[in-house]
Amino acid sequence: MMDNRFATALVIACVLSLISTIYMAASIGTDFWYEYHTLSPAENVSEAGRSIWEEFFSKDADEKTYTDALFRCNGTVGLWRRCITVPKNSHWYSPPENDMTTNCISFSLSDQFMEKYIEPGNHNSGTDLNRTYLWRLQFLLPFVSIGLMCFGALIGLCACACRSLYPAIATGVLHFLAGLCTLGLVGCYVAGIELLHKKLPLPDDVRGEFGWSFCLACVSAPLQFMAAALFIWAARTNRKEFTLLKAYRVA
Fold it and tell me: How many beta carbons lie within 10 A of that of residue 42, not counting itself?
């Protein structure tokens, strides 16, 4: 029979695990990991502004091209997509207007594994290995994190079916590894953004900041660690007390 303390710990751990999974899935699926805010949005509807965001949607847009558009058009960047704010009526003959909309374009799978260059946009400058592998890791780590938590949940269901608490240790270990992956994702993303801005500094009239999608990932990591601690504590302590009780009955 399970002690109420362990049952409570398991329920809290399951709730934390569920919340962290929802936060992680939401952060992966949204486009607000990093946001740019320009102080002169009127440029977006000028002829120069139109040429910038037309290049942004081009399939041949390189890193420098779409980053310049993000700077000038109140852009946001996610793990899968990049977005800019453009006029709703985007024809060349249309008069300037303040009615704006957000348009996005997805990173293809080849984009996620494409090499980053020492000078963004200059293919002859050589490969920047640091930024290349940071970009690839920030794409892979969130899926590894969610996969580990789902596998841990499966083990937990098997433990319930077997009426044993000891497999919860494996669930806790998997949640701990998932937390490390999420923490690594956050670190890789921050490092990648900082290295990019060293290559392409922000214009004086542009402000950049981490968005709420990034914050969800930051919150998800400690939730995963707390869930892991509760799973492991409940399983180990329950087994230890069961062993002592069994030894006492034998004596």
Answer: 10
